[in-house]
Design goal:
It is a single chain. The protein is of the alpha+beta class. Helices cover 30% and strands 21% of the residues. The strands form 4 sheets. Strands 6, 7, 8, 9, 10 and 11 form a 6-stranded antiparallel β-sheet that branches. Strand 2 and strand 3 form a beta hairpin.
Length: 391
């Protein structure tokens, strides 16, 4: 951390911006396209796939242009194949309400605003099979005035619990984020209100840890209270009244959790036992680095909703990234990679990078298959990148 901080300071003094993680990967890929001379059309929306004699031979797009005029539709034909890499449908409320568990909202996702499901809809229109449309790359999320905050370390650190609308714990709060939201929605399915849930912390926690971009001891902004995202009270009973849960239940929940923290054994949900639990924990807290008593006033409740990084369901593909029909046959000329395709992970979550890793791998597999497949039909022999204005 010290090395990273020093590098950031030096870069800042030199006027250089630093990027890491997903941003760095995207920059490397973009540089690769530049080096290979691959054109990239910005402000260009996918309208539909062009299918001739059962084969995908191009795409119909809508280009907004730079002159401020009316959008122009064009057909871009592909000599060998089309790879859909258009992301999920997390920003499409109509599709979310049709396929995703309730309640749902486009305001809870941290996915790109442009991920509206165009690739999914186009693939379905071409006859593709779909799967996992009810699932997403979920994560407990804090709805803030500036936008949703995908909650990672905050809920894993000792001295925090998550309770439902009955004032009770219902999961190991340190679960991988996809699994944590599965637990949230499981409660909705049984009629017990889990959306929204509330993260309960105390002043000891706030004095020790970063929280949603705030430094330790830094007060929660007034607008967070005004929005109803954060509640504060001098006692547990008063906090229960603020979040409208039974005071007796919340008090009993905290007393039971505090006993677990003192013994180091979460008898209810085994929090702090797995390697994943320990990753975001505090090794200075004993005997369990994921458990700490919650008893130092004032007490805080932070609203938690089922957010996501993007949707997980989409077009079903095979090991060559070819898009499949319900009967298992491949749609000639059509491939998919990334969140527009049904996740190879299924409903599980292997760990960070479980979205971008398969997207890179299956994008590569698609390109390999396209390069190895002979151009066999007249419908697929149109020149690459030939554009035809249609109106």
């Amino acid at each position: 951390m010290v090395k990273v901080l020093i590098n950031r300071i030096v870069a800042g003094l030199r006027g250089r911006r630093m990027y890491a993680m997903g941003n760095a990967i995207a920059i490397g890929l973009r540089k690769g396209l530049i080096d290979a001379g691959v054109p990239l059309h910005y402000d260009t929306e996918l309208v539909d796939l062009v299918v001739e004699e059962g084969r995908v031979v191009g795409v119909r797009v809508r280009h907004r242009g730079t002159g401020g005029g009316e959008p122009v539709e064009r057909v871009v034909r592909a000599r060998r194949g089309v790879i859909l890499g258009s992301g999920g449908f997390e920003r499409n409320l109509e599709l979310r309400e049709q396929y995703q568990p309730k309640p749902t909202s486009v305001d809870w996702t941290t996915g790109s605003q442009f991920n509206t499901g165009a690739g999914l809809v186009a693939g379905m229109a071409a006859g593709a099979q779909t799967d996992l449309l009810d699932d997403s790359w979920w994560g407990p999320t804090i709805p803030l005035p500036s936008g949703p905050w995908f909650c990672l370390a905050e809920r894993n650190l000792p001295g925090s619990i998550i309770v439902n609308q009955a004032g009770e714990r219902y999961m190991n709060e340190a679960l991988p984020y996809v699994e944590a939201v599965h637990e949230m929605y499981a409660g909705e399915a049984t009629g017990v209100g889990h959306v929204p849930s509330w993260m309960i912390i105390d002043q000891r926690y706030r004095n020790r840890y970063l929280f949603a971009g705030l430094f330790p001891r830094q007060p929660f902004p007034g607008r967070w209270y005004k929005m109803g995202t954060v509640k504060k009270a001098a006692t547990v009973a008063e906090l229960a009244a603020e979040i409208e849960v039974p005071a007796e239940a919340l008090t009993a929940t905290l007393e039971r959790f505090n006993a677990f923290a003192r013994s180091g054994d979460d008898a209810d949900f085994r929090r702090g036992e797995s390697a994943y639990d320990k990753y975001y924990s505090d090794p200075t807290v004993k005997p369990n680095p994921s458990l700490q008593v919650i008893d130092e006033a004032p007490f805080y409740a932070v609203k938690i909703v089922p957010g996501d990084l993007g949707t997980k369901g989409g077009l079903v593909t095979d090991e060559r990234a070819r898009v499949l029909r319900p009967d298992g046959s491949a749609i000639a000329g059509l491939y998919a990679a990334g969140n527009v395709s049904s996740a190879v992970m299924g409903r599980t979550y292997a760990g960070p990078g479980a979205t971008i890793g398969p997207a890179l791998a299956f994008g590569y597999l698609a390109a390999e298959d396209i390069a190895a497949t002979p151009v066999g039909t007249p419908a697929a022999d149109a020149p690459v990148h030939r554009e035809q204005e249609t109106a």
